[in-house]
Amino acid sequence: MTRVHNFNAGPAVLPPQALQQAQQELLDFRGTGMSILEISHRSTTFEAVMAETEADLRQMLGIPASYKVLFLQGGASLQFAMLPMNLMATGKRADYIVNGAWGKAALKEAQKLGPARLAGSSESTGFDRTPSSLELNPQAAYLHFTSNETIHGVQFWGEPTPSQGVPLACDMSSDFLSRPIVVSRYGVIYAGAQKNAGPAGVTVVILHEQLLERIPDGLPVMLDYKAQAAAGSMHNTPPCFAIYMVGLVLKWLKAEGGVEAIARRNQEKAGLVYAAIDNSGGFYRGHAERDCRSWMNVTFRLPTEALEAQFARQAEGQGMLGLKGHRSVGGLRASLYNALPLESAAALVQFMAEFQRVNG
Ligand code: PMP
Questions:
Q1: Looking at the predicted structure, is the pLDDT value of residue 253 above 90?
Q2: For a pocket test of ligand 1, which of 99, 102, 203 has the largest count of ligand atoms closer than 8 A to its C-beta?
Q3: Which position among 56, 68, 95, 102 bears the catalytic label?
Q4: Is 157 a catalytic residue?
Q5: Is it the case that residue 224 has pLDDT exceeding 80?
Q6: Which atom of ligand 1 is nearest to the CA of 194?
Q7: 265-312 per-position pLDDT tens digit
Q8: Is 104 designated active site?
Q9: Which of 183, 245, 294, 336 makes a 20 to 30 Å CA pair with 10?
Q10: Among positive and negative, which fits the CA dihedral 187, 193, 194, 197?
Q11: 155-193 confidence digits (pLDDT tens)
Q12: Cβ(176) to ligand 1 under 6 A?
């Protein structure tokens, strides 16, 4: 079996152990004589999968009992709409911090639904940092931010501080489970699973139960956090296989030492690649300011676009996939999610040195 060095931004590399277990269990899941794909979501077998996955996630992140954990569909993109539908509906404004394309998309979606406003942006510097100054509304329904901007490679190190009593809402899609977090600082956390947590198809939402009281009546049931919480994320058929895979990834992460251990490894991987950039004498140029550098998505440029294209092509020839930057910004991007082995980061660094030697 040959596994490539997978630098995809999402869907992304998954732990081989989780894939192997899924393979082993595929034809006969836990003695049912059926695969996990073929059983009822109302069966005790699937209910157990759901319960284990939620319990493992709660344990992994230290999620207090006062928080609901939901497994929803529609991706993080649906949360861009669902969050304001549920929590901006009190007629209050919501504040958005924008330090990249995803935060901008979240704000745009919220503005279709109510008075969402920009509380700070780094667009004027090309989303190379988190905004240095914020204008916060002390009455806001919530303060939204994106903890890691996947396209620009900009990470919030430490949460923004909302005004007293304003819940913090976070799109954590691309750094979810990559490091420890203090859940009690947040009102709502959401994350599409397809980076660190599992395959595409399920979105994890963690929200404080007190916020459920603010949700207006009459929302479409699938878009109502309260209804989804009451039904244990099973108002309709949930994405069973994706949830099962999240469970397997969590078991792998636990065996690896949990979020503390994976954070150390993530820092080490990112450190290798950033050092290669910094020690290249300007041949490689990092996009993000140093104090906002992402451990998950390392974005960088070469002297010309032609060299960038050549870099991505030649890297691919050596089994390093997914290094082309997002189509909206160009350049190169190495996504170094949890399941990417240290050897893959080391292989990239070696390739970077060789490429510079020949082309620099
Ligand atoms: N937010 C962030 C930070 C993302 O990285 C992405 C996807 N790359 C999204 C939102 C959109 O996620 P989805 O495709 O699950 O809707």
A1: yes
A2: 102
A3: 102
A4: no
A5: yes
A6: 15
A7: 999 999 999 999 999 999 999 999 999 999 999 999 999 999 999 999
A8: no
A9: 183
A10: positive
A11: 999 999 999 999 999 999 999 999 999 999 999 999 999
A12: no
The token pair at 335 is 């996504």
Kindly give, in sequence order, each residue whose CB lies less than 8 Å from that of residue 32, ignoring residues fewer than 6 positions away. 39, 45
In the DSSP assignment, the letter for residue 240 is H
Q: Is the pLDDT of residue 327 over 90?
A: no
Q: Give residue for tokens 């959401």.
A: 190
Residues paired with 41 in a beta bridge? none
Instruction: Give me the architecture of the 16-255 domain, per CATH.
Output: 3-Layer(aba) Sandwich (3.40)
pTM of the model: 0.98
Is position 195 annotated as part of the catalytic site?
A: yes
What kind of fold does domain 257-359 have according to CATH? Aspartate Aminotransferase, domain 1 (3.90.1150)
pLDDT-derived band at 91 (thresholds 50, 70, 90) equals confident
Which H/E stretch holds residue 332? strand 332-335
**Chain region(s) in the chain for CATH 3.90.1150.10:** 257-359
- Residue 41 phi, psi dihedral angles, 5° rounding: -70, -15
Q: Is the beta carbon of 146 within 6 A of some atom in ligand 1?
A: yes
